[in-house]
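Recall that a protein's primary structure is simply its ordered list of amino acids. Everything else, from secondary elements to tertiary packing, is in principle encoded there. The following example makes that idea concrete.
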Amino acid sequence: MIGENQLKLPKDLQEKEYLKTAGGKKKACSVKECEREAVRSLSEEKWEGYLRLAELDYVENRKKKIFLCKKHYNAAKKVKKEDDKYNLKKGFLQDSRQGGRDRF
């Protein structure tokens, strides 16, 4: 609960406990040869394809999570956004009608 003198910080500035180790240290980026602090924790199952397309090699862990720094997250997000754009069905929202299907 927030006290009277405390302000709630925006999500971007809040401390993320899942990005810390058991000893309280910040987790490092999972991309090989990157030592930056992780800002995002992503599902390996959903994001591994996008990381491959972005040509980022990462170290796997037992929890099936990928921890990314801001630079590598933006690179993976850019690839995901392009991929989603091509998979989006063109004109889907324009063709939909309100009220369900036609009645004859």
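The two ends are 57 Å apart (CA to CA). The CA atoms of residues 80 and 86 lie 10 Å apart.
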